[in-house]
Design goal:
427 residues; mainly alpha; four-stranded antiparallel beta sheet
Length: 427
């Protein structure tokens, strides 16, 4: 995560995504979270420093709390940048607040002999294994749909564009290869947690993890996520491998590893603290198991309405492209005109807004506020929009007769969307 923060800053994305735009799309209930102007740079610096402190085990408990808060704040500043692996980092760092990850081979353990422990409770390790298993298995369940398995969509759109990749370019033009990637990816996600848990298949599974994530890194620009997952699954290996790694690091850095090998079993400082930690982690996992299925509470096609789509490990399952033309009507005199979205949104924001209903609604309310300041007392906002999903022809998306200013952002079903004229079967 330290490297990720440095990379983010080096590419100029802090300014481009958070400081330069005049408007930012917010998450429901977190409208109060937003960029801090030039202070946003300080927020990233704090996040980067605490990620290093966590890695070193220095002031661990404070560092992991500050990292969780700063990183999550960054991700809440603008949902235009939402990615599943950012969400993964947020919930993983929250989980780590309650784990004794600094009890061995850390600066804290080196300085505090009472903290120093060679063994920790098994549930603290198993909780991270469970979280990784949920990510993979739920991603596999999400792939059990007709578009992915029987149409190889959206892979049939994405893969042919990678023709310039050495060795793979020609292969990626073949339809059978698209289906092979679709079915192979599904089987991988559904089986890899169990293969990692079983000792006899663990090395084979890790090799598959490396191949899978290196391949996805070559094919798709998804940042640090492949490296994060490759590193994370090492937790499935027993302590012998980790001790060998730490012994080699100790040799390189001239650190005495034997200082930490005291045979002590970690104990939480207070019994109530142990119980509270176990309780919070239990509730955390109940939510993680249930949240991805909240889409079942809504009618309609999930990929179309996107009600319950985020935070459910639906990774790279759809290709949507949209067009949204907003019309402002002054009810006092009937005057009407169309909005130039370029005046208010960046190119990236406009692209994301054009096919995501909650973005469209939030933008409509922003336009309402803007034109109220321009002298229109109660502007009405309508949108003419079309969306294409997974290679289908574009079709009307939002009901053009609905004044979006009359609809408040909420978790209610989006009746103002027009129905999807097809069916995607599956989970």
């Amino acid at each position: 995560m330290l490297w990720s923060i440095v990379r983010f800053a080096a590419n100029g994305w802090i300014s481009k995504l958070y400081i330069e735009p005049d408007f930012h799309f917010s998450y429901l209930g977190f409208e109060w979270v937003g960029p801090l102007g030039e202070w946003t740079y300080l927020l990233f610096i704090i996040c980067g420093i605490t990620s290093l402190f966590v890695a070193l085990g220095f002031k661990y408990r404070i560092s992991i709390i500050v990292f969780f808060l700063s990183f999550t704040y960054i991700e809440l500043m603008d949902k235009t940048t939402y990615l599943n692996h950012y969400y993964f980092i947020s919930i993983l760092s929250f989980l780590m607040i309650f784990l004794p990850a600094h009890a061995y081979y850390s600066i804290d353990a080196r300085r505090n002999k009472h903290l120093r422990s060679q063994e920790i409770p098994a549930w603290t390790i198993d909780s991270i294994k469970l979280l990784l298993g949920i990510v993979y298995f739920y991603a596999g369940l999400a792939k059990l749909n007709s578009d992915w398995l029987f149409e190889a969509m959206p892979l049939q759109i994405w893969l042919p564009s990678k023709y310039s990749i050495p060795l793979l370019g020609d292969l990626l033009q073949q339809t059978w290869a698209h289906y092979a990637f679709a079915w192979g990816g599904t089987l991988y996600d559904l089986s890899i947690p169990f293969l990692l848990l079983y000792k006899r298949t663990r090395i084979f599974a890790f090799m598959m993890v490396v191949i899978f994530h290196v391949l996805t890194r070559v094919l798709f620009p998804i940042g640090m996520f492949p490296y994060i997952m490759i590193g994370s699954v090492l937790i499935f290996f027993d302590a012998g491998l980790h001790n060998k790694i730490l012994a080699k690091i100790s040799e390189w850095l001239n650190i005495s590893k034997s200082v930490f090998d005291n045979g002590k079993i970690y104990q939480f400082p207070k019994n109530w603290l142990r119980k509270a930690s176990v309780g919070i982690v239990a509730v955390f996992f109940i939510l993680q198991l249930l949240i991805p299925f909240r889409y079942l509470l809504y009618p309609g096609e999930l990929f179309w309405t996107e009600e319950g789509y985020r935070f459910s490990w639906r990774v790279m399952l759809m290709e949507k492209a949209g067009y949204a033309n907003f019309k402002v009507v002054n009810p006092e005199n009937g005057q009407r005109f169309y909005v130039d979205n370029d005046q208010f949104l960046t190119e990236f924001q406009e692209k994301q807004m054009s096919f995501q209903p909650d973005f469209i609604l939030e933008y409509a309310h922003y336009l309402e506020d803007h034109y109220q300041t321009q002298g229109i007392k109660d502007p009405e906002i309508y949108v003419e929009s079309y969306v294409a999903l997974n290679g289908r022809r574009s079709q009307p998306y939002v009901n053009p007769e609905v004044d979006l200013t009359e609809i408040k952002p909420s978790l209610k079903h989006r009746t103002w969307l027009l129905p999807f004229n097809d069916e995607i079967k599956g989970l």
